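Please, structure for the following, as tokens.
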Amino acid sequence: MVNAVVLESPIAIDNRTSADPIIAAIDIGTNSVHMVVVRIIADLPAFSIIAREKETVRLGDRDPQTGNLTPEAIERAFGALKRCQEVAKSLNAQQILAVATSAVREAPNGHEFIRSIATELGLAVNLISGQEEARRIYLGVLSGVEFNNTPHLIIDIGGGSTELILGDSHEPRTLGSTKIGAVRLTSEFIPNNPVSDRALIYLQAFVRGQLERAIDEIKANLQPGETPKMVGTSGTIETLAAILNLDKNGNVPTRIHGFQVHLSELRNLINRLRRMTVAERTTIEGMSDRRSEIIVAGAVILQEAMTMLGMQSLCVCERSLREGVIVDWMLTQGLIEDRLKYQGSIRERSTLKIAGKYGVDLPHSQRVAELALSLFDQTYGQIHTWDKPIRQLLWSAAILHNSGHFVSHDSHHKHSYYLIRYGELLGYTESEIDLIANIARYHRKSPPKKKHQNLQNLSKEQRSIVSQLSAILRVAVALDRRRIGAIKDVSLNCNLTTRECHLTFVPTDPYDECVLECWSLDYKKPIFEAEFNLKLSTTRG
């Protein structure tokens, strides 16, 4: 069970020890690049925010013909990322966690952009799905808002997407991501300013249509009698809140966190903003130059969401995706396992959920997974050196390797690839999902080949992971050929001097010779042998 915990400690940074790690998280969004630098306080567990950085880069201004990220936007993003690295380094950050969202997800050259960041800046960027983005936004809000066992509706309006989440102190109930954002809608529906009545009507109708499915899902997951509260995050909502909460001298509040946005006031503000030119909007206290160009579209998204959800007000939270990236890192490190147990097991829960969705023979897949992990563990340091996170990719691939039967028995390994690749596995980055899908893809038939389209976006190291782990998975699949758990245990001894590897299996039934399993292993082992340059022999124990 998840207990809500505010993870920003009031303890002064000066009172902490130098042993507390400093971590930076970067969110490469459609409109801006954001960074937060925090000091982890493991004994609470909590984190204190040391610094925040933000720069508008407009990756969402993509080429209208190709959909590619433009050279100008890429140059702006590189400049912002370099400055973020410099700030993080100056604050002694030991690690920088970076994620990319909507604009990079959708651009045909998005993967190339990520590779160039790794090559030129030495910064690893994880591309995350819309649902995974929503999950981490939930974690970020949970770290800054006390839910008090009350369901909360969370809305995060970005440049290219809007995330809508229903969650409580225990778990997120729905994780919705829609392809509407302030930059995207401004480009498509607001060619001129002031905004005409006609353009506004079209925009509102389009937004309602795009939000309908996510809002229906939220309503379906509310229990009778529940009255949720609404929380808003992102630059658009913070700007609107700042304008609506100017002090008596017309100054913007120093901190927006906790301020309210009322639907009636929002409607009046939209009517005022849309009658202005962009230049006129920039004169409003609290409105940045770049935000003034996209504020109307963002405000309309918020207005329509609140109206459709029947919410008259929301509370602003300054925590969002980047803080969620920090919380997720703490979860993977086991720092808040007890308090956020549900989130800590999100990878396993998500994998099993997809297995159920596609009718996977779970007892068989679990046996294959156990055998694969046993082989993985026994050969660690001998024929491979992959660590624990890679081990978990093998587990998910083993559980889902036969999911393609849901489509067809013929070429089901290829169907498994597509179902996993586009099945919205939570807790994993896009590159990790790609690895899982490819490992499952090659559990049978031909081994991975460079010419295969599904391997084109993988690095040399990632292709090595796929080749080696899929070879191990093949052996594990062979060892449960009859799907009855005929083999109880295996031991694998490798002699790297003679390049020989000996597998001893123990049958569940002492009288079972496991003939079919032995035949299947002989049929499948050549790819394992070729991959690891070993000769594999078998003995019944």
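Residues 13-128 form a domain with the Nucleotidyltransferase; domain 5 fold (CATH 3.30.420.40). Residues 353 and 425 are 9 Å apart (CA to CA).
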